[in-house]
Predict the 3D structure of the following.
Amino acid sequence: MLPTSLRQSLEGCDQLPSLPQVVLRVIELARDPQVDLRDMVATIGSDPALSVHLLSLANTVFYADQQPVEDLHQAVNRLGIERTLSLALGCSLVHTASNEAAAQLNLESYWQRSLVSAMSARLLAERVGLTVESNVIFTAALLQDIGILGIHAVDSERYLSLMAQAPDHKTLAQLEREVYGIDHTGVGEWLAHRWKLSLRTADWIRGSHQPMVSADTTDLKAKNCIVASGLIADAWLQGEAALSELTTELAVYFDLDTDEMLAHLIELQEQLPAVASLYNVRPPEWLDPKRIMHEARMILLDRTARLQQDLQRKEQELERLRREQEELALKAKLDPLTELYNREHLETTLHEALQESRRDSTSLSLLFVDLDHFKEVNDRFGHDTGDRVLVELAATLRQVTKENAVHVGRYGGDEFVLILPDHDEQKARALAETIRARIASQNFLDAMPLKITASFGLATLEPGAPCHDIDSLIRAADRSMYRSKKSGRDRISIV
């Protein structure tokens, strides 16, 4: 809604863009769904200049493949109500805005932008399936900046200063909101209501500079076409490189082929001179079609290369995260001192091994290893030395079992556990003996001799033997290990 002070200034201004009675009557007729074309023709016929423009438009390049029209009725019938209205509005506004009050504005650039916007909006509308709405969209896009003329009419000196400060259209709208509390699209909406244009035309003018949104309705798609048309017009007036870059972005947004969209814009350029002449507007500077296509291809190649680099970086990042995740998952399974499996993971692994043993009818053995007199090592040499002993024992267990499909872990303190899938009692005992002999012969300190022995407890589950859960197997191996302790240590006991 317009701020009160600005609305009062607009209402009291005699320099606002105005429409002659003929055009106001055309607007009134256009809003009537039951309009009789004869009334429209009679109204337009009272304005010879407008009649000539309509006849010219009906015979432009848009209709080159049709028979030339010879009278106003044929022209209006060919153009349709909305395009007739667009031409009437545009021509009248171009004429009325070219007065002394607007002389300081760059009206040529203004109407060039408006015309390119309108034609681009209609092009986009047709490309996204809004052909029926394309002429209404043309009108809204043509008038999207009409509020500029309105603001200039009521506050020309300050507004020209704002325009001089603004390097682009977006900045101008921002400055307008800071100074007037609303930008020129809001003033354009007010003018559209004042002229009794359709509500949706006024609404589309108001939203013409808003961001594009995900569109799933005809109204939102139309708004996107109008917003994009203004961006195209700005880029068009900047030159080939800017137009090519913007088009590649919009093509993705509208899910269109870039080359096809550029080809349509180049074709639009061919139509511009004839259409611009109807509005008494000089067409924008000619853009080189070959350069436009070349710039677009270079942009797409560069974008593809950057996308590939981004994809590669993302893949590398995902791989790094995957490795980190694997490392964290592994650390959660390991004892931090020995880097063997911890008790929790050992019990999970034993549960899985027990299920596999029952399913495949294979043997499963569990071996407990407990160092003898380890408390004396800690008391005599200190806990740091005790930790070194445990680390070296872990390395020994890994080395001895590396050729066997077994799972080795620290169960707690100086107690270690080996899960031996597919190991019957004889095979498990042989491996246990190898480990026992290796520990007994090993020197655990470099500076001085330190011999340590271990007691072993072995429990084996043969195929078909009763065993309800892993706790039963753990208790059996633990009892065997304590039997070794009581029997003199440095030996293997079996349930």
In short: The mean pLDDT is 87. The radius of gyration is 43 Å.
